[in-house]
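tool_call: predict_structure(chain=1)
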Amino acid sequence: MRFTSTRDFQRALERAVRKAGLPMAYSAGFHPHPKISYANAAPTGAASEAEFVEISLTRSLEPGSVRAGLDAALPEGLDVLEVSDAADLPGALADHLQGSLWALRFRAAEDVPGREAVGSAVEAFRAIEELHVTRMMKKGPRELDVRAAVVTLAVADDTPVEVPAATGDVVVLATVRHTTPTVRPEEIWGALRQVGGLGLPRPVSTRLRQGPLRGNEVAASLTG
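tool_result:
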């Protein structure tokens, strides 16, 4: 499922809304579209336990029934964890999504640096003030300061249950402040390779949490 694109997910969700029989609200005009807003989607290739969408309905429904109906209608691997009334959340949804907690899992192998080497690269990353990488945008290359966006970075002592790690894998946890554009896990990986001088393979990345930043942590809920 981590290789499902944002557009594929959007199509699946729109089909699920119809299949679940929800009273979907549509835009006006000659080509009406479902009123669904997607906020800060995870990049293709990354798994996520914390994606958010806003769905507009033509009448009020009990959130629990919406969750059950949508969850049953979605393909395996796409799960609805929680549904709440947007009226209970002050302001726009996107304003509350200030940061993400990512897990970067480096798979164990004979030619892959181990925990100690990865830890040294993490320490080197935290010791510098700026670290720029280049991303190719629609209008050409753009430099991003990865260091400024990363609030915390550490090798995990205990692997989160959401991360399917094997023996010897090294998991790095990164709290990332949402900037414009948002720094991606692959750019943190590139930065670690740069400062550590390591041949780190591309990690398997999972977003564990997304929401308001409270100090150096991403809150567990949008209102927490």
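agent: The longest strand covers residues 99-106. Proceeding to next step.
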